[in-house]
Amino acid sequence: MQPRSQHGFHPVFCTIVPPHVLDKLSQSDDPVLAGPARRTLEADAARRTRRQVTTAVRPPSVTPAPEGDRTGKPDRTLYDCRHGTDLPGTKVRAEGEEPTSDASVNRAYAGLGATFELLLSAYGRRSIDGNGLPLIGSVHYDEKYNNAFFDGEQMVFGDGDGEIFLDFTVAIDVIAHELAHGLTQYTANLNYYGQSGALNESVSDVFGSLVKQYSLGQTAEQADWLIGAGLLAPRVQGVALRSMKAPGTAYDDDVLGKDPQPASMDDYIHTGDDNGGVHLNSGIPNRAFYLLATALGGSSWERAGQLWFDVLTGGELAVDADFASFARLTVAAARSRFGEGDEAEAVLKAWSEVGVPTA
Q1: Taking CA 9 as the corner, what is the angle to CA 119 and CA 48, rounded to the nearest 5 degrees?
Q2: Cα gap 245→230, rounded to integer Å
Q3: Using CA atoms, how far apart are residues 238 and 138, in angstroms rounded to an integer?
């Protein structure tokens, strides 16, 4: 495996709704459902291609906040695309300004702020780059756009089709998930394919859930461990896009089909689709984190989240890391930070339960 420093810096195009979900939806006999899904797939494919041909550059030099430094404020700017696709759109709210009459703008503003606050208060990191990077978000992207994404530079939110998906700003963990792709981009810079890509997705789910738990003041036991709860329209038989607690159980719907995420390596999915199944196999490290957080109890961001943050920012995680190498680094992080105690034992047990070796 190659260390991050030997690779160029590749911002990736990451969406919250996996291609396999939209593909299933696009095959519906109902044009009201199939049309928006097909257009979303086409728009995502085009933007993903543009991102891949962009010249890779190295990340700018950043200075993480010193240990114990918990000062700083976010620098947020929100734009309205007014159902067009030109980014960023029309500026509608800047940092420190009063809420607008647009709930999508206000939710996005709050979600960006909550993510900034968790990174700063829990880990002493000023924004996703560690150096106070401005956070930019655009709402009302395109017509009935069934997704939200981070394109390496900013957040973008669709309004959903109203039939399957609602406004993508309604779930704070969706906002945090996408912004966490930026955190990964500025730290481990994990390749977006295969197991490293699944880790990229899982890290975003982890920090998305942590931001939600932090903002709600929930313990690991109180959290729902769902990603995108409230995003599915009432007609859908399901509770969220993904479940970290029980991958494969988030939805079971006649249009969307059944949630295909595996919960352990026994059911690992080998596929060339979706960048090698990055949104599918992420269920395995997701469940490992859930098992660790609930075993340790209390606030998930304090010990379990700290270990994941340590690995992500420690400089030893290879850009093409697989599950086993990531797992070994979490064990090493637990021993380094907490010694041979409950934390290290809980990490070992969590990975063992999902079938990922740590030896």
Answers
A1: 90
A2: 17
A3: 27
- Phi, psi at 25, each rounded to 5°: -65, -35
Please tell me the distance from the alpha carbon of residue 20 to that of residue 97, in angstroms, as a whole number: 39
pLDDT in tens, 204-239: 999 999 999 999 999 999 999 999 999 999 999 999
Given 140, 163, 177, 178, the catalytic residue: 178
Q: Which of 163, 201, 279, 343 is catalytic?
A: 279
Annotation says 20 is catalytic? no
d(CA 182, CA 135): 10
Question: Per residue in 226-263, is it b (16+ CB within 10 Å) or e — as a string?
Answer: bbbbebbeeebebbbbbbbbbbbbbbebebbeebbbbb
Q: Dump pLDDT digits (tens) for 242-252.
A: 999 999 999 99
Look up residue 96 and give its amino acid.
G
Give backbone dihedrals phi and psi of 192, rounded to 5 degrees, phi first: -95, 60
Angle between helix axes 194-216 and 304-313 (nearest 10 degrees) is 140
**pTM for this entry:** 0.92
Active site residue 279: yes
How far separated are the first and last CA of the chain, in Å rounded?
17
Distances in whole angstroms, Cα of residue 134 to Cα of each of 103, 155, 156, 188, 282: 21, 11, 15, 20, 28
Torsion angle in degrees (nearest 10) through CA of 126, 278, 77, 47? 140
